TrEMBL record:
Residue ranges of every copy of the Aminotransferase class I/classII large domain listed in the record: 48-404
Domain of life: Eukaryota
GO molecular function, one term: pyridoxal phosphate binding
Organism of origin: Desmophyllum pertusum
Protein's name in the database: Aminotransferase class I/classII large domain-containing protein
InterPro entries cross-referenced by the UniProt entry: Aminotransferase_I/II_large, PyrdxlP-dep_Trfase, PyrdxlP-dep_Trfase_major, PyrdxlP-dep_Trfase_small
Amino acid sequence: MAAGTLFQDLGCYGSDVVDLSISSQDFVFLHGCKDGMELGTMHCLATQDPGNLFQYGPRQGNFELCQTLANFLTEEYGHQVSSEHLFITGGSSQGLVLLCNVLFQSGDPVFVADLTGCSLDIFSDLGFKVVSVPSDENGLIVEELDKLLKVHSYRKRPATEKRPFWGFVYLMTIFKNPTGHSLSEERCNALINIFKKHKVLCVCDDTLACLSYAKSNPPFKPAPKRLFGYDTSSTGSEECGNVVVSLGSFSTIFSPGLRIGWLEAPQNVLGHLKNSSFVRHVGSSQHYLSGVMSSVIELGELTKRLSFLKITYHGRLNAVFDALVQHLPKEVKLSKPQGGVFVWLTLPEKLNVNELLKVCREKYNVGFSPGSEFSSTPNKFNNCIRLSIAHYNEKILSSAAERLATAIMERI
Ligand SMILES: Cc1ncc(COP(=O)(O)O)c(C=O)c1O
């Protein structure tokens, strides 16, 4: 299938429109994966025992990858990651679906921040009750979550050995999709207490946590601490054990085509996963590919590629931001994220973003994601826009941002 056709299959536009809703890496980046994979494959085949490599793997995932990945993440996150907490998945979305299937059942509630990049149909298809939690400009409002967990406590079912939590909270605390913001330390600490008080699990999407551009020049500082790192034994009630699972993926830092990722979970959750019938029968995801990825990391190829991605994305973020600041009217609010791939704009309330999108596509050859796509509350965030910097180079982004600003200016 030609690349253009594949992209239409993924729901993207034809080549004339610069579509700033696309959040996957561009083709130039992906060409860069080839060398790393070639080297990794050769190294893996030369160093690993084929009798192990081509066998079914351990339930938790390839041990070599768990170890090299733990070292890599410890360096990138700037916080300790233990290989014993890692579980290899077929990507972060597959990890999420696995947790849903193993630990929860139809009718259980999932609490989701009112601005979320997650496709909520993953949850509704499984029969979960989706409860939307209000957010403000700083992210999820902890007191609102506390109230909603109380309101929905009638949904509590008896905890079973297999399903110890009656519901879960899905969120993103670092360079969040769609706003690019990170949750403050104070809110992260408060959240852990709330999860433990209500005995719910939290599934945190940390797939953008390696993409930090904090500090204006490379080497960049690591991202804020992931929520998993706040969940220490000294926080809150210990009755339900630790309560945070972190989802990670090679899709955002290497290649989405490989469909490989990980989850980082406390032992009390990992035990349930490893002993589930699903993992016993269908587990040990991507064992051979894990061997190759372990070599890619060991050879320094992942670090090399991620450094390139960060420098490139940082340049793109600056280019988009400079163009927007220069050309947007002052009525439009925006703040520069410290990492990730998203920029969030808040336009005056009276402006209808869906109409703007039509004009932008037809007259200015530029597309974006309307804010309402990320909310489950009707008519909310109708005046907001998400832009992605992942898919086009600085020059194209800068010119597209200027055209978008002109279109906005015309309608204010
Ligand atoms: C924020 C975010 N979460 C999840 C994903 C999906 O990851 P995966 O391909 O590992 O399912 C992506 C992919 O780009 C992403 O940007």
